[in-house]
Write a structure and sequence with these properties.
Ribonucleotide Reductase Protein R1, domain 1; 2 domains; mainly alpha; Fumarase C, Chain A, domain 2; two-stranded antiparallel ribbon; elongated; 18 helices
């Protein structure tokens, strides 16, 4: 069974309290590295490692005076540590702490998202297997095209979810980097080995190069993947919305006892979860746009990105995690109506077999252009009059002169549209 994390754990990652926890974790990693390199005396390291702590309320009180969050944090930590606190933040700049701590938050958030994404993929796989032989109408431009397996819809989404698994892992690797290189990233006051060791302790990779900040293309890449996950969720939700329409009614969101669909119309059962997911995906794309705007900064750094990231990073991570959870529940509890799918297949009285007929005529020697013209003329007549397409074909001498009745009747067989489903499933890794 896949281990699943609760939503509160994701929310905790982005609390102010945990933000300070990450700052302290990063500061202690740097102190530990400097101690190991002989820069900090044993006694001072022991005191720092034992006593380092903070109080969120005290930090806020100090920040109200300093108007600088990192200085307020360091001042409060020093109150716990005492004189050895002079080694905390030695040779570093604020962004060394801020950006490296953010890497920890993004890495941990990404891992929770990855877990939930795996759960969505497994849920889609199960529904794909369940409906492997459930035949439904395939549509293009919203219009009946040809019959297909309803399970292929889930298989398609599963395959895309697998690509998202690969991409989110790459995105986690991209943001899971730290820096300990000083005010403009040139290690002017610190041995580069401190960065290597501190990142090792934090299970991060050191960046190859930074300015005063870790470069924001990394964050944009991460948010781009979150937006892609959102787009997959929206794709699923949009399909469900279309299939739940009264005129189609092939699927329906689970409608729980006591649930109400409208304040005015008691009969309403609306696809509210799917609509919610479609709307929330727009927020993710908007946040990606803001992340892209954060890539170019003045010289070695300005702080135009900072205020934006305080919103888009936690919001996007929490939102995607929530959306994945909702989408899993949506798919798991989706009500499917195969009988309505069969009824919709019959709406056009067999016109969906037009391509099969066309290809049989081509195999018998007709040019594609002539075969197309013959089949289309019968199809348009049936569409206009409501006649059964097969019956029209059986009395068309242009066709019966080439195809025997048994072959014509065999053309109008839904099984042809399922015969290679297993091949597709195997290629997608579903069976």
């Amino acid at each position: 069974m896949i281990k699943r994390y609760s939503l509160p754990e994701m929310e905790h990652i982005w609390t102010q309290e945990n933000r300070y926890e990450c700052w302290l974790e990063v500061e202690l990693a740097a102190v530990r590295a400097m101690h190991e390199l002989g820069i900090i005396p044993d006694a001072d390291w022991e005191t720092i490692s034992e006593k380092a702590d903070f109080n969120s309320e005290s930090i806020e009180e100090i920040e109200a005076v300093t108007h600088h969050d990192v200085i307020a944090f360091l001042t409060n930590v020093a109150e716990y540590v005492g004189e050895p606190a002079r080694w905390i933040h030695f040779g570093l700049t604020s962004s060394d702490i801020l950006d490296t701590a953010t890497a920890l938050q993004l890495k941990r958030s990404g891992e929770l998202i990855l877990t939930e994404l795996h759960h969505l993929a497994e849920t889609l796989k199960l529904r794909a297997r369940e409906h492997r032989r459930t035949i439904c109408m395939g549509r293009s431009h919203g219009i009946h095209a040809e019959p297909t397996s309803f399970g292929l819809k889930f298989a398609l989404w599963y395959d895309e979810a697998q690509r998202n698994v690969q991409r989110i892992q790459n995105a986690i690797d991209t943001v899971a980097v730290g820096q300990f290189s000083g005010a403009v990233g040139n290690f002017a006051h610190l041995d580069p080995r401190v960065e290597e060791l501190a990142c090792k302790y934090l299970d991060l990779k050191p960046v190859n190069i930074s300015t005063q900040v870790i470069q924001r293309d990394r964050y944009a890449y991460f948010l781009a993947e979150l937006a892609l996950i959102g787009a997959l969720i929206e794709k699923i939700a949009l399909e469900i919305r279309h299939l739940q329409r009264t005129e189609v009614q092939e699927v329906e969101e689970n409608f729980s006892p006591g649930q109400k669909g409208s304040s005015a119309m008691p009969h309403k059962r609306n696809p509210i979860v799917s609509e919610q997911l479609c709307g929330l995906s727009r927020v993710l794309r908007s946040n990606l746009s803001a992340a892209l705007e954060n890539i170019p900064l003045w010289h070695e750094r300005d702080i135009s990105h900072s205020s934006v990231e305080r919103i888009i990073l936690p919001d996007s991570c929490i939102l995607v995690h929530y959306m994945l959870s909702k989408c899993c529940s949506l798919i798991d509890n989706l009500v499917v109506y195969p009988e309505n799918m069969k009824a919709n297949l019959e709406l056009t009285h067999g016109l969906v077999f037009s391509q099969a007929l066309l290809l049989h005529l081509v195999q018998r020697g007709l040019s594609r252009e002539l075969a197309y013209a013959i089949v289309q003329s019968d199809a348009m007549e049936c569409a206009k009059t409501g006649k059964d397409f097969k019956e029209c074909v059986l009395v068309d001498s242009r066709i019966t002169s080439l195809l025997p009745e048994t072959e014509i009747r065999d053309i109008f067989n839904y099984e042809r549209y399922l015969r290679n489903v297993d091949f597709i499933y195997k290629r997608c890794g579903i069976i």
